[in-house]
Amino acid sequence: MVKPREVPNDGHGAPRAGAAVCAQPQPFRTGIQGDAMDFAERATATTRRLLHTLASHDWAPDLAEDIGSARWFRGLGTMLGLGALAVATWPGESAIHAAPAMPLGADERDEFRSQMIQPLALGSDSGKRMRATRAVVPLAAAAERAVVQLTATLGQGDSFARMLERAGVGASDAREVQRMVATVLSPSQIAPGTQIDVTLGKRDSAAGARPLDKLAFRARFDLDLSVSRSGGVLALQQHPIRVDTTPLRIRGTVGSSVYRSARAAGAPIEAIQQYLQVLDQHLSLDTAIDAGDTFDMIVAYRRSANGESQIGELLYAGLESAGGPEAQLLRWGGDGQFFEASGMGARRTGLIMPVVGRITSSFGARRHPILGYTRMHAGIDFGAGYGSPIYAVGDAVVSYAGWHGGHGNYVKLDHGGGYATGYGHMSRIAVGSGTRVRAGQVIGYVGSTGLSTGPHLHYELYRNGTPVNPLSVRFTVNNQVDAAELASFKARLAALKQVTPGGAMASLAPRQAAIGPTPRREIDRLGD
What we know:
Distance between the termini: 138 Å
Low-confidence stretches: 1-26, 345-350
Largest sheet: 10 strands, antiparallel
Structural class: alpha+beta
Oligomer: single chain
Radius of gyration: 49 Å
Number of strands: 25
């Protein structure tokens, strides 16, 4: 054991200046052992510092963030390094050769190859073949089919004769068929896409065209035409088809949607679209129709005995609520306009609304929403949905139709007697200058053109050129018609409303005659 070195003092018990003081004895180390322990301590400290440095950095950051930064490049290096390590340690691949289940010779391989798709690419020259025997005699010529049946289609802008010639009919037969068809109806009236069933006979020579034996096609919805050869001469036959023109009436209860309810009731899509368009021109679809109301539509409808049908134009659009009819609109006149049954022949006086909506700004001085200062508002504003129809409040002549500054798309009507009305901010104008319009006729559609903050109608009334409050004037609209025309209108309306809903969907097939009692079976007679 080594005794610690004595510490000199200054004679007063304190250590002498400059002398080292050892508080505890130090263990004895040899030179080699001390160096090894120092190296281990230094290595441990270095490792700890390295691990601390590695842990303090993010080596796998999101490469979609901080692109171009040191952190991003560090992550890129990590990705490339790991990828290089994966490629370097990728295991090798080697083919494993297995012995076949049975030895295959050239003939067997060729037989297997004949069962694959490959022979088609090689001309199908594989597989086993047998040599022809003496019993096989080559044919000098192959027999031709005696009859050829095919279907030709008439194209857009195509000629009837040209179409037949392309199908293989001789030029003389094609011209003769076209001449005969023209005696019944013009070939131009045959709808493109019509299919013609053609039967060609046996030709006299290999170079000649086949003669036409039969031809049949649907010429019109109510007429079939056929051509046949009898005694070497082509003859045309007409086959009328029974057609029923009873209008199709569909009634039902409105649920969450008029469209869905009508579709559920069996109404065709075309009829529903027409119905909604007509109603939208006379009332608001958003506010006038409630769940539980009854929709009523009648459309022109044709059906043939062959089972085909055609949907025509809408004839009547009705809407009923618990309080009574909301709308009874009938198509009338050569222009196909719809008239309200209750208004035909009636005289109305009052404020005619130019659009289905509510008043959002009245007549008088107000602060302009865009210009920001107070000025005269020479009309009233009606809030309505974009594209809602705008109606003429009375019979008039269109004195102006076009762009009009802050009014945007604008229409001005001259009603006579010094009165005129103006309609502004339209999205689209439906009339032209100089035309005459009737009360209730659509002259445009709600928009937000010009100085406008949203879709609405700016409606003005002029008396001798001076703007006045539109609410102060009541228009009188006369829907007086000739007594005979009014009677025809009411008779037509009554006849349509007598149509049975869904009656047009009944089958046109003739009913079978009632037969006698069902004969008894032999097994039933055994019990007698």
